[in-house]
Amino acid sequence: MELVAALKELNGSNLVESTEHGKYAWRTKNQLLPLNANWYKGLIYSAFRREFLHEAVMGTAVGPIRDLMLKPNNIRHPDEFYFPTLAYNSHLHLPGACLDSPSPKSEYGYNYLGKFVIWKDYRMTCATKYVRDVCILGADHVSLLQSVPHISANKFHADYQPEAYDEMEQWYF
Questions:
Q1: By the 8 A CB rule, do 33 and 85 touch?
Q2: Which residues lie below 8 Å from residue 12, measured CB to CB, with a gap of 6+?
Q3: What residue stretch is flagged as signal peptide (predicted)?
Q4: pLDDT tens across 74-97, in order?
Q5: Distance (Å) of CA 65 to CA 57, 69, 81, 106, 132
Q6: Where are the domains of the chain?
Q7: Over the stretch 114-132, which tens digit does the pLDDT of each residue have?
Q8: Measuring CA to CA, which residue among 136, 108, 104 is closest to residue 120?
Q9: 43 neighbors 155 (Cβ within 8 angstroms)
Q10: What number of other Cβ atoms are within 10 A of residue 151's Cβ?
Q11: Backbone angles phi, psi at 49, to 5 degrees
Q12: What single-letter DSSP state applies at residue 16?
């Protein structure tokens, strides 16, 4: 019920973390996008309106952008670009599009409500271990996770302190 209430507070907007693609331009080979769209990079951890996803996946209006993204070996990690790009180009008129540009790097990450994560370059302690610069959540993080407003958490490993995930599951349900 809390998740439903949180999503209702978005008033029909999508919940999408993104940043301008600046330092990631090499991943797109500095290509220009069709439809006068600007590149945005983000994560696949998002909450979208069903109508937005239908248009993104099946619609013809954004077909030229989708076709560019789907070309084999054209863009590195297209999943990190496709949905944020569609969500932050409001002139494409997709349902739930974000009207404001994403926050600057200094303001995103920990403040993104879609996902809690501790990256190695954050100023937060990781009492467990890092795998590819992401803190693997464990028992020491349970009380913190129970106090933050995020709707998901990244990253648990099934074979590393599994009791932490179990405790979160019991707390949530």
A1: yes
A2: 49, 95, 96
A3: none
A4: 999 999 999 999 999 999 999 999
A5: 11, 6, 11, 29, 30
A6: 2-105, 116-172
A7: 888 998 988 888 999 999 9
A8: 136
A9: no
A10: 16
A11: -70, 145
A12: -
Lookup: tokens for 92:
């494409």
Is the model's pLDDT at 147 over the cut of 60?
A: yes
Alpha helices (H) in 20-153, listed in sequence order: 50-58, 63-70, 82-87, 142-145
Q: Would you call 104 helix, strand, or coil by DSSP?
A: coil
- Count, residues in the chain: 173
**Contact indicator for 16, 84 with CB cutoff of 8 Å:** yes
Distance of CA 73 to the CA centre of its chain: 22
SS3 152: coil
